[in-house]
Specification:
The chain is an alpha+beta fold. It has four helices and four strands, in the order αααββββα. Strands 1, 2, 3 and 4 form a four-stranded antiparallel β-sheet that branches.
């Protein structure tokens, strides 16, 4: 049995079901997406797709709350107001938006391959572009 990751993505689980559906269709033309979803759910130890979907959503919300709490504490931003939500995917990672009692922040969850030096270079280029009038600040 596979373990459902803390940051389980419902989109990823759906793709797993779609990929699984392609395999049995060769030998079982009557296989449905519901069959594949149920099979994926059982692989993770859940009774069915609705239970797996609920567990993935709970984990996503829990992970977002934990991350929001860590961010506001680490940077002294008071308290989180509402939940953190993903707003954009950039070259470096996923950008999130979080309202805090100190104001709005947009933290970025960096992808594993991103080096901190690359982010510093990009920030420097943006600062130079703003100073030169090539773009406006945030």
């Amino acid at each position: 049995m596979r373990s459902l990751p803390q940051s389980a993505s419902l989109d990823h689980l759906r793709r797993q079901a779609n990929d699984l559906l392609a395999v049995p269709r060769g030998s079982q033309p009557s296989a449905t997406l519901a069959d594949a979803q149920a099979s994926v759910a059982r692989e993770y130890g859940y009774e069915g797709w609705p239970q797996l979907k609920s567990a993935a959503e709970r984990r996503r919300v829990d992970a977002a709350h934990i991350a929001a709490a860590a961010i506001v504490e680490r940077f002294g931003l008071g308290r989180a107001i509402g939940e953190m939500r993903r707003v954009e995917r950039t070259w470096a990672g996923h950008a999130w938006e979080l309202e805090t009692s100190a104001g709005r922040v947009v933290p970025t969850e960096l992808f594993d391959y991103v080096m901190s030096e690359d982010v510093e270079v990009e920030a420097g280029l943006v600062e130079h572009a703003i100073a030169a009038g090539g773009m406006t600040g945030p």
